[in-house]
Design a protein that fits this description.
The protein is mainly alpha-helical and 158 residues long. The protein has a domain at 93-156: 2-Layer Sandwich (Dna Ligase, domain 1), CATH 3.30.1490. It is built from six helices and two strands, in the order H-H-H-E-H-H-E-H. A two-stranded antiparallel ribbon has the order 1-2. Helix 4 (104-113) runs antiparallel to helix 5 (120-130). The longest helix is centred in the first third of the chain and has 24 residues, at 3-26.
């Protein structure tokens, strides 16, 4: 930019700032509401019976505090019953096919995938600790999730 155009630009900024300052300082200092309500609603004190009837006509349900506590207690009882029903353990059953060449890691992964045991690697380490890694027998085995690792090992490594 040339020096003349730079001066023109700067003077334009000064003029714009001056106009904004003049409007700000010389404008009205009171804030006016954009929408002023001319009609004010007068509220009268309603009795309890009038409030109940008015709310019930609007579709609301009115309960006393004792009724509210009874409903909450009934709801909590239903919730605990549903939690007890959900707490019943789901038993997974699978048919495990052990073929020749499979390792204890493969068997552990298959059992973990079938949700029989939580971790296949822990199963394989237990097999290694017991020294049964060479005792794996090929075959078809029915295994349920309710059995312990000892019972599963007894089934597969007969």
């Amino acid at each position: 930019m040339t020096s003349n155009s730079l001066r023109s630009f700067a003077s334009g900024l000064i003029v714009a700032a001056s106009v904004c300052a003049a409007v700000y300082y010389l404008g009205p200092s009171e804030v006016k509401d954009s929408e002023k309500l001319d009609s004010t609603e007068k509220t009268s004190a309603l009795s309890v019976d009038e409030m109940k009837s008015m709310l019930s006509t609007e579709g609301y349900v009115i309960h006393t505090e004792e009724e509210w506590k009874q409903q909450n207690a009934a709801k909590e009882q239903v919730d605990t019953q549903s939690q007890e029903a959900a707490a019943e353990k789901v038993v997974y059953r699978t048919m495990l096919s052990v073929s020749s060449g499979m390792t204890s890691i493969d068997v552990g992964d298959a059992l973990a995938q079938a949700k029989i045991i939580p971790d296949g690697w822990e199963f394989a380490k237990e097999i290694e600790n017991r020294g049964l890694s060479n005792e794996l027998r090929p075959g078809l085995y029915e295994i349920e999730s309710g059995k312990t690792i000892d019972e599963i090992i007894a089934i597969i490594f007969q």
